[in-house]
Amino acid sequence: MCAERAARERSAVDLSARLRQWSSDLGPVLMGRLRMGTQRIQINFGQIVQLTVAAMAAYSFCYFVLGHAYPFFAAVAAVVGIGPMQDRRLRRSLEIGCGAVLGVLVGDVFVHLFGSGVWQLGVILFFAVCMGMFLNSGAIFVTQLGIQSIFVVTVPAELATGTFSRTGDAAVGVATAILMALVIPSDARKRPRNQAAALLAELARLLRETEDALRREDPQAARRALSRARDSQGYVDSWRASLRISEETARINANSRRYAAEVSRLGRACEFADRALRLIRVILRRAVTATERGRVDPILAEASGQLAEGARRLRLALLEGGDRSEAEEVFTAAARTLRPAPGLRADLEQTTMLLLFRPLAVDLLQAAGCSLEEANAHLPALEVEPETGALRVVEEPEAEGPGAEGPGGEVR
Q1: Residue 389 belongs to a domain
Q2: Which end is more exposed in the chain, N or C (fewer Cβ atoms within 10 Å of the end residue's Cβ)?
């Protein structure tokens, strides 16, 4: 009996410990999701307003000007043409909108000839999807064509003002969406700047958490930072999507063409920031092991803190479109500290982390505008000692003034 009771108590304690661990892990995940969701709403707020205005404008034109009693498809086509997220380029909007118009047209023709009903629904859906696949390989185009044809067949024909009036409503909605995309003033830099700021803020936060975990030698903190880093790819994907939109906007919108050069610079920064984020994940995996094994050399924590400060300054520079030299200076100072200390040489895990921090510094320097050669030049040159296999810094010869003489009076 005593043994059974002890076993039950141990099981209860284990369950309690697991619940506490689950709660501690769930909190940061939920906060991360909440933060990313809020940022998505903030970033796409203008798009949401534009979508709402386009739907109201298309509906009002068909209702008040064309005299259609229920211009349902005008609002629908405007909404699907613009989309609630700023991840749709003009070509994709045209594809979605044209699919919607064609679907309504096919449905209108079919209903006019054969009426509405169950068998009509099956036939029109089959025909619309086949026609969509024949005309275009895009899944969204095919889906829109099928959905709109279903609407036409299932919505009572009595709601239509006249023959093919619903097709006209859909065409008005798509035209409204395209007109807004071409005419409404758009700053091609704004969205990628905001996305750059979001990603670099996340980079700085991850590097600060890495610094904290290494200083306190806390494996749990390192694991939390690693979990957060694994959930950060959405920042990169959003930045890339915004760059594609901005590149197109700079081509088709006269007000945004002058921003093409900055959009290109933001694209280059995005590429290297993505590489840096991938390296941070690898560093954090090593940090978990290093903190579990014991003492961590302070040089690693200091380097992480310096890189975090540089990421913070680069965020401000990209957000404001300003000079990135301050961030470059901080990254340069961090890069020059990345040399093997005596305490690191005997620990393979920490040596690996040091070697991972070096390409991380190079990527961040390139994100700040340096070339690859310039970034590498800021790192201390390393070589392997032949006798021990340990890393050591290659000391560059000091510059000496003219007339310095060597042994025997020779000039060196």
Answers
A1: no
A2: N
DSSP secondary structure, 24-47, as one string: HHHHHHHHHHHHHHHHHHHHTHHH
- Say what angle helices 219-230 and 260-293 make with each other, to 10 degrees: 150
Identify the domain boundary among 157, 183, 209: 183
Q: How far is CA 40 from CA 28, 89, 383, in A?
A: 18, 18, 47
Residue range(s) defining the domain that contains residue 333: 190-381
**Alpha carbon 206 to its chain's center:** 15
| Alpha helices (H) along 138-258 | 139-154, 165-183, 190-216, 219-230, 233-252
Q: What secondary structure letter does DSSP report for 397?
A: P
Residue 65 DSSP class: I
**Residue 342, Cα to own-chain centre: how many angstroms?**
39
The pairing of strands 382-384 and 391-393 is antiparallel
User: For the chain, what is the domain count?
Assistant: 2
Which residues face 393 on adjacent strands? Answer: 382
Q: Give the tens place of pLDDT for each residue, 285-313.
A: 999 998 988 778 888 999 999 999 999 99
3-state class (DSSP) for residue 168 = helix
Whole-structure pTM value: 0.62
Same domain, yes or no, for 199 and 343? yes
**Same domain, yes or no: 291 and 167:** no
Cα–Cα distance, 277 to 230 (Å, whole number): 9
∠ CA 177-179-181, rounded to 5°: 70
- Burial class of residue 234 in the structure, from the number of CB atoms within 10 Å of its CB (0-12 exposed, 13-18 middle, 19+ buried): middle
Among 183, 201, 216, the domain boundary falls at 183
- Give the tens place of pLDDT for each residue, 231-282: 888 888 888 877 777 777 666 665 666 777 788 888 888 889 999 999 999 9
In the block, tokens 């000391």 appear at 395
Kindly give, in sequence order, each residue whose CB lies less than 8 Å from that of residue 30, ignoring residues fewer than 6 positions away: none
- Is residue 268 within 8 A of residue 198, CB to CB? The reply is no
pLDDT of residue 82: 76
